[in-house]
Amino acid sequence: GLNGALPYFKRMHDMYPEHVHEEIALLTIPYGGMSPETMAVMPTWRDWYLASDQTPFYDYMKTMLKVLTFLGRGTEREADRWLLKSPQHVEQLQPLMTVFPDATVICTHRDPVAVAKSMSTMLTYTSRMSRNPEKLADVGRYWIDRMGRMLQGMADQRHLLPDEQSIDVKFHEFMADDI
Description:
Structural class: mainly alpha
Strand order of the largest sheet: 1-2
Number of helices: 8
Number of strands: 2
Shape: globular
Largest sheet: 2 strands, parallel
């Protein structure tokens, strides 16, 4: 039964509202999302991902969130809502709002140079687990281009967010008072 599945979900997807985690892992299970390109410079995956409709992967993620919600009932992890925080949503507002039409989207505004430096450093460290680690310069070039595409996607799709369902927050203000 599902109670037997709880330890599996606890190990594989230890996600609950107060836990810092990105749901991007749930998009990866059915081979969707941008997660693979966060492990290495993957222009072929990027091109497939950008050309494909991500709505089925968002549908899968919604189903998995329902399962995790069910499994958390009656525990300290019981939740009635989720905070999704994957950078992928920046360029996937259409599937996000199709699958979660009642979502409120918080748009954080942060210095893109700081984001590029942070992301490139983090992903270069991640690539060190690879047999052929990426060079920081290659990761930086890839992600500067990639983040430009992501921000353009947000600009192109921002009209899909109703005013009453979007909030703009300056990143430094959020970091000073995240509540």
